[in-house]
Amino acid sequence: MTAQGGLPAASAGIRMSKADELRVVHQPLARHDQAEKIAGTTRYAGDLAFASMLHARLVRSQVPSARIVRRDASAAQAVPGVVCVLFGEDVPHNLIWVDVPGQTVEVAALKASMEVLATSRVRFHGEPVALVVAESEEALAQACDLVEIDYEELPGVYDAVQALADGAPAVHEEGNLLGEWRIDRGDPDAAFAAASVVVAGSYQTQAVDHAYLEPEAGVGWLDDDGVLNLRVATQVVEHYRDVARILGVPESRVRVIAPYVGGGFGGKEDMTVEPYLALAVWRTRRAVRMEWTRQESLLARPKRHGMRLEYRTAAAADGTVLAQDIDIVADSGAYAYLSALVLLYSSVHACGPYRVDNVRLRARCAYTNNPPTSAFRGFGGMQVVFGYEAQMDALAARLGIHPAEIRKRNAIARGDRLPVGQVIETEVLLTRTIDAVLERGGDKPGPSGPRKVTGRGLASNIQSYGRLVWLNDSAAAWTGFQLDGSLTVRCGVPDIGGGQASSLAQIAAEVLGVDMDQIAVHFGDSSLTPLAGTTTATRQLLMSGNAVYEASLLLRDAVIGAVATETGHDADGLTMAPDPVTGQVLVTGDGVSVPLTDALVICRRRNVPIEALGTYFGPKGTSVVRDLAADRVFPDFTFGTHLCDVEVDLDTGQVEVLRYIAAHDVGRAINPRSVAGQISGAVVQGIGMALLEEVAVDNGVNLTAGFFQYLIPTATDVPDVETVVLESGEGMGPFGARGIGEPPIGPPPAAVASAIGDALGVRPTILPITPERVLACARQGSAQ
Amino acid sequence: MEFLRPESLGEALAARAAHPEAVPLAGGTDVMVELNFARRRPAALLDLTRVGELTGWHADGGTVRVGAGVTYAELTGERASGGQTALGRLLPGLAMAARTVGSPQIRNRGTIGGNLGSASPAGDCHPVLLASGASVEAASVRGRRQVPIDDFFTGVKRNALAPDELITAVLVPAPGGPEQFAKIGTRNAMVIAVAAFAIVLDPVRRRVGTGIGSAAPTPVRAVAAERLLAGALAGDGLWESRGPLPEQVVTEFGQAVSAAASPIDDVRGTAGYRKQALAVLASRTLGWAWRDYRAAGQQAGRG
Ligand SMILES: Cc1cc2nc3c(=O)[nH]c(=O)nc-3n(C[C@H](O)[C@H](O)[C@H](O)COP(=O)(O)OP(=O)(O)OC[C@H]3O[C@@H](n4cnc5c(N)ncnc54)[C@H](O)[C@@H]3O)c2cc1C
What we know:
The complex is a heterodimer. Chain A is an alpha+beta fold. Helices cover about 25% and strands about 25% of the residues of chain A. Chain A contains 18 helices and 31 strands. In chain A, the strands form eight sheets. A seven-stranded mixed sheet of chain A has the order 4-8-2-15-12-13-14, sandwiched between helices. By secondary structure, chain B is an alpha+beta fold. Chain B folds into two domains: about 1-175, Uridine Diphospho-n-acetylenolpyruvylglucosamine Reductase, domain 3 (2-Layer Sandwich); about 180-300, Enolase-like, domain 1 (2-Layer Sandwich), CATH 3.30.390.50. Chain B has helices at about 10-20, 30-35, 70-75, 85-90, 90-100, 105-110, 110-120, 125-130, 150, 225-235, 240, 245-260, 270-300, and strands at about 1-5, 20-25, 45, 55-60, 65, 135-140, 145-150, 155, 160, 165-175, 180-185, 195-200, 205-215. In chain B, a hairpin with a 4-residue loop joins strand 12 (about 195-200) and strand 13 (about 205-215). The termini of chain B are far apart. The mean pLDDT of chain B is about 95. The complex binds flavin-adenine dinucleotide. Flavin-adenine dinucleotide binds next to strand 2, helix 2, helix 6, helix 7 and strand 10 of chain B.
């Protein structure tokens, strides 16, 4: 049985349950994987060893734009312990198709590809050119230095706007414009003409790195039956299909296992080590390990898109937003990856969580010879917050309306239509999130000394959860009782640290009455667990959560049905729940009371399976090509508001974030601790983007390929994040949950900029907001 | 790679003379980074961690002798141990600098001798050592000598050690007055300074000492600023009166310090910002030092 587009088919009974009726869901449980992670004993992808395992490493381009004129591996091959050195010609099908990964069958706007190993042309600093396999890390290091690659440097282009100009060096033959989206709604020209005020702003966001704890790593081996196994750090076990295509073998011959992942944030959505490990195993027929160094990870793995955002916003005297005119240019770097989709997200979210009937938008992404860019938490929907929230603050200032008030006046509500055409179907608590942070915030703090000023900033956002509806997304999960009444859950979801597996256990426990410690969740195995798609796009709670919910309902109904038949009762009168006193799971009602273990025996006697497969299909919709106009683009959205207090040093330009409060409507918190963790983590990552982080590139050369150059916040740079969790109970996930993985990354850069703007009278518009940029604002502010 | 492990200073100096290509290794917080990134592939390492003579410190008359192997954690120490006054109390300026270094792990491993060995313009001990007029004790099989700190830094990451010499200790005049150190980094911890500054006021010798970090090819003193401030303090009788510092003196001091720097643009900040930051650091640390000096006078007056 299957469920589709919202409510699982089986029974909607528990779905909308009130928070106080929930036993396991909604409890702030310690995650079952936490003790091992704290103790450092979790076996991540790189922590697996085989006897006589080989090691593999990439030789990467030293230059950002060049023709390869000569490759010579003879010196490297002569190093004792080197097993092979591979070039592009050694790859059966030397092409990675960067299609939409996961459980989707449509590819929509994307048909992007790149060579596995570059053969004749390199387009960015760090592009893989050769793969070396050796018996030891030492031999590997030596051999990599000896692979000779001669380049003839070619002119490059290192800025997205310049890349789109006439005569710019072409990164790819088909030109530098990789993708374009437009929105045309209403009559913007008339609205601008009629407006009381028009504010214009230009904003710039930078490329940033995911900087997860666990670098890209994995171990591959061949099974006795010839199946290629890859145990890798990934957000997408379905990449087994891409690997099969590269090797030219049936998809069924490749298996990807995702153990616990030490952070993904989108950086492990595209393939990283997979094709190279696969090649090395395929060639040598031996087990191989590959781990990228932090430097490789920072150098060459795709980053977040830097964007240039141009906004013109028209409003009436009462603050009502009348029109938006928006132009976005994003830097895709050297290869397409998921850029076109990232820009689509930017376009859909560009007007923020506000009603606006007249919109003209153009969003383009351009190839450059910079490091490639692709998926990153927020996926294009977060950069635009820096633009639209600055516009809201500017409008508020011009009209003399409080920033909170202007947001509330324009806040989207149920029944409103987004500029793309999608109608919001669920309750929106945006206004309540604004009130919540203001109430929690109290008075703005005063400065701690002379030459210091303080400021308070506010930023709200809208962020989709679940995939684009025309991708025909799906997720499957399996639940099965053991004879002792304990429960096994199988689901292909990769657990990337957000507590994905733990949340699934909570959902199954809630429906089936089983204790958490009676449940084992097997996850992230493309051959042994039902495929559940990517842990990206804030889709897993929605997708695999609903799949587990569905499978659990089916299983519960089957067991109850068997007991009803056996005892001659009506199934509708029976429930399955733990005895309040003993905790024993019972099928009860109507004077019947059958322990679960007995019920399972009854099932077996009556040929009733004690396992169930649930598949959840996401909401559907028709695809768009360039012009964005659709009744439905995403399943649903999550809304929130952040408040930030800063103190600015007027002489040094240093900014201290004094206080940070983040409120989101999460629909229903399946595990409040995990929710708080997601919000805190996203805020810290967002503050890093606001104040510190930048992939600095000089003519294509990445200058920040180490944690001494690429600065992420330390514990001393951020305050404790105060989270406020609101629960409308209206999300499309199980029990009314909304996704919360990505949404809280959106507001921080805007909230911090808003607070600095409040302190100085001039708002920074370029990220990251370095002390020098702050001083420039301070000077402008006092000059006025 | 050969790994030499002398057990005493004598052995270490002999090994140093016999293997000039061997790289001395103390806490390894600089050396291991270089090895890891293959910036350096030395034929041999000379491990100094077993050489007892390099550890510990003692105050001797007007001088505190700090062993080359003393760590940042020891420099920040507030509690007395083994009958010795805590180092952090003896040398508060160095303690302030040490507190800003890296992270607890780095402070546990990294040593003052290693800081001087690396001689990075961003080394955090250097501004304080320059400001307090310290000297570096170097030893070789040929004997011992003292190198005034002003002569120690000879170029970008180069120092005055001869190929057969090791740093054995740093000799720091015991402070007779307030000391301050401050640095600006792009974040609050684990970062190379954008600019750093130390000031030492010596009311007995009527001396002003300064040291600038991260804003020139080597750590440097701001000699003109020292003269300017010393002149103002003496001229207005401020050493005796402990009166408030004229705002103009503070500003001019900051400008003079800034003028002594010759910074470059890099990923962490532009030259212009470094100069501005230095002026601010200099004015602020002077303000704090003078505040301490005045407070000490009041206490003395009361006591
Ligand atoms: C994460 C991190 C953060 C850091 N943060 C800071 C910071 O905030 N401020 C700062 O100043 N530094 C910082 N450093 C740099 C480093 O920790 C310091 O320079 C430290 O003082 C080096 O001491 P060490 O004992 O580890 O030296 P080592 O790495 O062992 O040696 C450094 C150099 O000195 C030489 N050497 C060591 N001992 C002697 C000796 N007795 N005689 C002659 N030569 C010798 C070595 O050959 C080598 O060239 C940081 C380093 C890291 C890795």
